[in-house]
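User: Can you help me understand a structure? I only have the sequence.
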Amino acid sequence: MVLLAGITLGFGVSAHAHQVKLSTARVTLGGDRTVSVEVALKGSDADRLAGTNVFDAQRDSVDPTLVAASAAPILAYVNAHVAVTGLDGKACVAGAAALVPDGDGVIYRNAFSCRNVRGDIVYRSTVLTAIDPSARQIVLIGEGANVPQALLDASNTTVTLSAPAPLLLSTMQRYLVTGIEHIFLGYDHIAFLVGVVLWARRFVPVIKIVTAFTIAHSITLSLAALNIIVLPGAVVEPAIAASIVFVAMENFFSRDIDSRWRVTFAFGLIHGFGFASALREFGLPANAVVPALAAFNIGVEVGQVAIVSIVVPALIVLDRLMATDRAKPVRTASLVYALSLLISLLGSYWLLTRLLEA
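Assistant: Let's start by predicting it. Here is the structure, written out as tokens:
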């Protein structure tokens, strides 16, 4: 019930489950110890950060004229939240920053001379993450497509440029945490899982449900993340919402929890494409695609097991509290119907808004 209350509070803020505040950066260390930095921001994020108005939501693009007129406050914000230094904190000398429009966003460019700095060089960024702990920045280290990547967030704001690429264990740990965060911030995935187990009173059917969901979403998550099979968000997001409505309404007509793993497997395939869309926004490191994908998938699994481990025992406790004979507690139909109705309303809201925005 606590989880559902959180869903109810959160659904009005975001109709999409997979909106990620993300900036990207390319940082290149030259032979003369000059560091070139490019930071790309969504236009709406730039407006939010700098108090400007360069983004046109209806056209989903920035106005180049407004970008030129509003460059100063945007540049001031990025300059204040990006730094290139030595390990001792000594700052490299910044050049003249520039801002250019780029479709639906803006790109900040600057060069930092680090000839006065000895040893390793550190790139530091708190762009977006300073005001939003859920934001991320993907950092491409070097030129070209297949270069090392790093993922910065509110708790990890630096990349050491002349150090070796991040250790595999460190990369996997970060993607594991990202997977856990994603499932807990994905209100629609939580609603689906809660709706599926509302009639569950034994752990064997729950294990079958969780296993089926895991296998299914692992298949499509891997296929989509590796660009083997990709479905557009305009199809995936409404389908996820429809799956929530289906499992919630099914609770009114069937209490057969033992065979529910079948429908969970089918809908798990759809949810896997949703997980993949979030992972694609973070990006996969070119030098550790498979480990990062596996870690993210494990993180999602850990998150869903945690949710089910909270919901099912809580329902069993409610059975005992609401039972007339506590020696033989049963699941109260009115409780399941009330929660199912709430979940179906949430799913219907998400379905309608996603269809209108498609």
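Now, to help you interpret it: Residues 22-166 form one domain. The longest strand covers residues 34-42. Let me know which part you'd like to focus on.
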